[in-house]
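Complex record, two chains
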Amino acid sequence: MYLATHELKANKGRYGLVILILFLIAYLIYFLTGLAYGLASDNRLAVDQWHANRIGISQYANSNLAASTLGPDKINLANLKPTQAPLGEMAAVVNKVGSQKDLNATIFGIQFDSFIKPKLIKGHQVTTNHQVVVDERLGNGTVKVGDQLHINGSQASYHIVGLTRNNLYGTLPVVYTTLGTYDQLRYGSARVKNVSGIVYQRASDVQQIKGIKNLTPQALITHIPGYSAQNSTFSLMIGALFIIVLFIVGIFMYILTLQNISVYGIMRAQGISNRTLITSVLDQSLILGVIGIGLGLIANQLTVLILPAGIPYANNLMLVALFSIGLLAMVVLGAIFSVRQILKIDPIRAIGGTA
Amino acid sequence: MSVLELKRAAKTFKSGDTETQAVQPLDLTVDAGEFIILTGPSGSGKTTLLTMMGGLLTPTSGQILLNGQDLGRMKEKQLSQVRFADYGFILQSSNLIPFLTVDEQFRLVDRLNKKSDEAYEAELLAAMGMAGEKQSKPNQLSGGQKQRVAIARALYNHPAVIFADEPTAALDSERAAQVVQTLRDQAKEHHVAVIMVTHDDDLLKAADRIYNMVDGKLKDVESLGRS
């Protein structure tokens, strides 16, 4: 560490450049990670709140909840246990009464005595048709208990009786209502008794019904249209940045080692061991990595403070820790390119002799 | 008492089918505190001989014994330890580490030795007239100052032998004479043997023994009639 720190201090310009590049890449990685995690979370928050074991949907829906319809011949609502919750799902556009502004939302039709009823932060649960509980993020937080909504251009208005938090599905705020209202909105009549799926709380509640495919919550989320594609895109970008870090640090450390070959050669001639020199290079890379990555993380967290509310960014400490360790590993791995160069140093050449 | 002994030590370089005998088999004994100068034309094998004695090059035949230990039987790690603990090197150009101050050059040795002797460092630097330059970096020193620090650094580790390969090549004659005289005085005071390669005839008077090397053969200067 002694050699490493003194060399870094003596060559602030050169090593500052490496730190700058590491900082920029680390910043980008943390930002992309936060966006990827935020976007993934916004797809699944509502499903995660159920703490369900399985979700049964039509086997013809290609595992896509939005494409699933189960009629009364499949699900008899009257015979369900409290741990078996029917669910109607549809995409919708809502407007606050008196406002022309269209707000995208996901409608969940549920039974409000079932285990998938939303946790409220304000108001009360839905008790009759034409009442809704909405996620607080609907309209970027502009809706409140007591407001009324039109749904999909309906003449009828729906009263907001409660607000919930972190209930998003497919990145859209969820509007919870009764199954009757859901069927009215989707099929034109509350007398229709269709649902999209049935949510099972426990494995022991799962029923094998012909025409119904039982999915894990994870499988259901993975099949949300666009979910896998966006996650793969982010993963690819982040993975590519890790490889770029490896090469950038590798090339920089290699060049800096080449520039120091004569110094290292003299040190070798003086009996300073390869181990000391290699440790010095690895220590240098570690110090550069910690500073560059640390600054990237700090800048990232400062950026988060000024991000507009609509950007789906979320921190995940586990991912941040994992990627920080991963980045540091890449930095040290990059420096290992230079180790071979050090091992090849000929001290005789360094002191002006010929071998 | 001899610290370094060469017994029929020779070095041959091979390049394809061509063999070049850089150092012919030679015998040499170096005593503690002795100041030996090697002269000779370029390409005569002086640096090869110096690097062999310095444990950087293995002799093709013969033996090089440091305090009775055969360097030829040592592995690279042991040789590295010998170079660090028993040898000091003063090279043509400065062999100071460019990013360390004068003081830090000594601290590095301390760290590797896991012990410190700042009083001895101060004594050596004072003897070299460099006491006021402890915080200077090598690029802030003149050529002569760098070589005086290099001598102090070489002596700091209490070596048995110091190898100096044209240490005054970059200095003017007056400064060269001062540096060599200082090296000689310190070597005598600390009983360190010095083997110095030089082309500068003006420096020969500092030597206890002078050897001339021609075509890989070592000849005592007196045998050449240059007493």
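Note: Chain B has a mean pLDDT of 87.
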